[in-house]
Amino acid sequence: MKQFFPIRRSEVWVLSFLVAFSVFSFLPIWRTQVIGGMAVFGWLMAALMLVSPALALYVFIRKS
Amino acid sequence: MIVERVLVVLYLAGCIGIGIAASRKVLASRDEYWVAGRRIGTFVNAMAIMASLASGGSIIGVMGLAYSQGIPATLALFAGAVLGFPLASLLVAAPLRNFGRFTITDFLAFRYPSAWVRSLVPLFIVVAFTIYIVAQMKAAGITANALLGIPYNTALALLTFVFILYVSIGGMIAITWTDVIQGVLMLIVVIGTAAVMIGRVGSPLEIMAQATAVAPELGQVTHRPVSGYLGYFVIWATAIPVIPHIVMRVYTAKDAMSARLSLNIAMLAYSVIILAACLAIVPVGKIDFPNLVDADQVFLEVVAAEFPAVVRGIAVAAVLAAVMSTTDALLLAVSSAIAHDLLGNLLKDRATEATLAAVRIGSAWVVGGLALYWAFSPPELISEFYTAGIGLLSASLFVPTIAGLWWKRANRTGGIAALVVGATIYALVQLGVIGFGTSPILLALPASALAMVLGGLFGPEESKEMLERVSALHESPQNERP
């Protein structure tokens, strides 16, 4: 890791989580599963839209 | 339409008034003009960022898209941009704010000193954003024509005159305050409408259940495979951290932490608007107006059916505000690419501050005028073009920026290679010269990253002085390491 400038561990976790969540959301299986009238893919996208800024905010507010 | 027109005229007069008030402060200083003196507070900046991203497409377009192509696909398109903001706040906000210049070109030209970088980056920005501006202008003209009954060309000329005027004389301060007003207007109108729908029909889950009972396709992914949306998702997620009008907002923040917070607060507000539109307004629109020929009319139909003329007038102003708040930020970004990135360096030792101010104002009028001329008869597929333009910026700028901030082996060779390879591959796939079968960004970004890695590993090592300067960008009091 000496090739990179240091980044806080909590921020690495947030980045990893967001990338993993995105990949998970685009798995083909969620296209056909339906909850409450909408494909799970749609609910995952909605969740991503709220979770991603909220999670980053939480990390920054804790830090500050 | 008298009430609607009066409210819109009052709104436009307010924008001009803000521009004139701001001009007293900004015209004598580059810092004031481009980045509002770097003292914008967190919540004001958040609202301005939200308004800058939320274009007319975020109100009219998102609801039309959800109505015609279903809610999941629509959310997939917008979630990429939302994800881009946490990425920006984690990866670029603090070091770029600490860098403390004006544009993304400033950083790339510092990190990879080269005439290629100094000229190519602003060139890409001018091309991509001029197309983006034309698309927004077209939306403004169509909206004003449909909602106010004003002829397309007249509406276009009037609105364009107003925002060029307040951008050119008021700079970033005028944009910030008009964007705040525009953002608040959008939040009130969309969330207020959604709240009325929820009050009338029930919770969003009940609304969804009722709507999908009569129109199951609303909740399904039916129109294209999920992978078809991956390209849009990736373009916006990777464009946001490097897109010029957002990067300029980072520079306006009072400090690095404020920049990081404002990006994420902005996206929470933006997400609430998109989700309120998709999960409350559109389903009710589908129940009440199931057979609209023009899906983009769904929001206006709902508002017209539910509210009196005054509220309809405010809603019209909110839609125009959404268009203008994006267009003004884009116009300032293009002006900065010309007046600061390209001409500013040529003139800086030879021109007086008054001359530089004239160049700044002139750039805004020239770009705005050219975009207006094009918008009088825009290509039909302008929306596709501007997404392609944003993709070009993402393909060329994302890897050099992120690597330049975080990878110690990133060097001039790798930076220029990543910039050129990313842009070239993207353009070749987009134009069909290289057959790829899916979105060009999915090939261009890995190619750009590969070029950076090869340049970094096999090119000359970066100087110790440069590494120390980049390291200092990560070490402000707001960005302390554990």
Please outline what is shown here:
The complex is a heterodimer of chains A (64) and B (482). Chain A is mostly helical.
* Mean pLDDT over the full residue set of chain A: 90
Strand content of chain A: 5-15%
Q: Identify the strand order in the major beta sheet of chain A.
A: 1-2
**Greatest chain-chain contact:** A-B, 38 and 57 residues
Largest sheet composition of chain B:
none
Low confidence ranges of chain B = 478-482
SSE string of chain B, helices as H and strands as E: HHHHHHHHHHHHHHHHHHH
CATH class of chain B: Mainly Alpha
The CATH topology of chain B is: Sodium/glucose cotransporter
Main sheet specs of chain A:
2 strands, antiparallel
Element string of chain A (H = helix, E = strand) = HEEH
Structural class of chain B: mainly alpha
Beta content of chain B comes to under 5%
Radius of gyration of chain B: 22 Å
Description:
The complex is a heterodimer of chains A (64) and B (482). Chain A is mainly α and 64 residues long. Chain A has one domain. Chain A has 2 helices and 2 strands. Chain A has helices at residues 9-25, 40-63, and strands spanning 34-35, 38-39. A two-stranded antiparallel ribbon of chain A has the order 1-2. In chain A, β1 (34-35) and β2 form a beta hairpin. In chain A, α1 packs antiparallel against α2. The relative contact order of chain A is 0.15. Chain B is an all-alpha fold and 482 residues long. In chain B, α7 (115-148) crosses α15, α10 crosses α16 (382-406) and α16 (382-406) runs antiparallel to α17. Chain B has one domain (2-378): Sodium/glucose cotransporter. Chain B contains 19 helices and no strands. At the A-B interface, α1, β2 and α2 of A face α5, α9, α10 and α12 of B.
Salient structural properties:
heterodimer; A: 64 residues; mainly alpha; two-stranded antiparallel sheet; 2 strands; elongated; B: 482 residues; Sodium/glucose cotransporter; 19 helices; disordered C terminus
